[in-house]
């Protein structure tokens, strides 16, 4: 008797659509953290020499949409945080919402196959596209954690981290 071993087809852990949904859940939560700050403290309050949360939000805004645009257009322009200089919380929230649409637009142009391709993000970070995207999410979570510390230091209860709607 002869037996043949078969290997089940490799199943994909997560689709691109699920990754985008996960990321947008984090963005929804970060938006709520931005909104929880009083106006003055958003731009001025910091702990232990860290940047105020407005500057962290500008960094996040300056990375995600422009990076996805660069990936889809195969453009490796350098990272630039100088183009957006908000003066109010409303400025930040408005730009955050605009960048959410930019993210949706460009993310949906990246094929499943392209996720595995190397891309030199901002001409500095040579990784597969999916790793660059995971970096965007990780960086946002890291900075949102700083925002949580700031809010708690100000006596403000931050949004629950698991509520990403």
Automatic annotation (TrEMBL):
Q: Where on the tree of life does the source sit, at the highest rank?
A: Bacteria
Family annotation (InterPro entries) = DinB (IPR007837), DinB/YfiT-like (IPR034660)
Short name of one Pfam family: DinB
Cite the entry's keywords alphabetically: Metal-binding
Please give the family membership noted in the entry.
Belongs to the DinB family.
Q: What is this protein called?
A: DinB family protein
């Amino acid at each position: 008797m002869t037996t043949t071993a078969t290997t089940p087809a490799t199943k994909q852990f997560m689709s691109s659509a699920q990754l985008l949904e996960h990321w947008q859940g984090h963005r929804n939560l970060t938006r709520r953290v931005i909104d929880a700050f009083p106006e003055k403290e958003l731009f001025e309050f910091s702990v232990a020499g860290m940047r105020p949360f407005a500057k962290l939000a500008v960094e996040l805004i300056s990375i995600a949409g422009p990076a996805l645009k660069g990936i889809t257009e195969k453009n490796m322009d350098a990272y630039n945080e100088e183009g957006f200089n908000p003066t109010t919380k409303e400025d930040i929230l408005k730009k955050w919402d605009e960048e959410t649409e930019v993210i949706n637009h460009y993310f949906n142009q990246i094929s499943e196959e392209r996720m595995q391709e190397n891309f030199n993000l901002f001409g500095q970070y040579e990784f597969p596209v999916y790793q660059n995207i995971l970096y965007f999410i990780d960086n946002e979570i890291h900075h949102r954690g700083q925002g949580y510390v700031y809010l708690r230091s100000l006596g403000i209860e931050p949004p629950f981290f698991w509520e990403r709607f």
